[in-house]
Amino acid sequence: MTSLNKLQHYLTAWNLAGPQLLAETPTSHVYTVTSGAERVILKVLSEIGEEEQVGAAALRYWDGRGAVRLLRQDEGAHLLEYADGDDLISRVTHGGDEEATAIIADVLNQLHAPSSRPIPDELTPLRRWFRSLFKKAEADQSSGMDSVYVRAAWVADDLLSNPLDVRVIHGDMHHQNVRHSPRGWLAFDPKGLVGERTFDAANTLCNPVDMPGLVENETRLLTNAGILAEALKIDLSRVLAFLYVYASLSASWYVADGVHPAHELKMIALVEPHLTR
Predict the structure, then answer these.
(1) Which residue segments constitute the domains of the chain, with CATH numbers given?
(2) 0.90 surpassed by pTM
């Protein structure tokens, strides 16, 4: 079935109207649609959209707490609450970088709040998420290289073997994945991971990636890491350690795709002198 045929199927089956294409990714086509009197999001999944199902499990678990609500789903599509306000990029570009970080911290505290709900089985364990870094480190070690990937894999193994505050975590928390809505600031597009909640602070510190003049700065890194550590009540040294291993993981993904990870290597170089483990 083509993407247009899939769209028509869900418009009919779920009684939706007025589709407007919002975004296309390898895993989905995203539309705004009308459901009754409400404007919502219809995400039509591609054949490789399996990770979107994992993310949907996280949204279902949060049930609107700090994130958009999952209104309906099946194996081919998701219907979601529409956060139609600005994302946090606009705050950063207007001089509100630290304010944006504080907003992200508030959203994370909502997502990470203890819950009586059982953690969904579909979620990806954080150690599995790091398999690319461990694979790269193993290859480098076999070649006799003492690379950053080898060093980061050692730190990652220590962190993942001794996790604190295991929660359902977003996995891709950055400024474009938080938007304003009538209910306040809400996250969307989670990866759907389970592991130590500190991991969600790491990606934030590497973003916005298209503002290297701002982000690739030691003072900014330490200031925003401090904001996150204080707001999330996490030890700063642990935030920096997770930043180090996250940036190394991200770099390993780029290397596997044949791309030089310039931004990630810069972030690694900035944070590595501040590690205490």
Answers:
(1) 3-81 (3.30.200.20), 89-274 (3.90.1200.10)
(2) yes
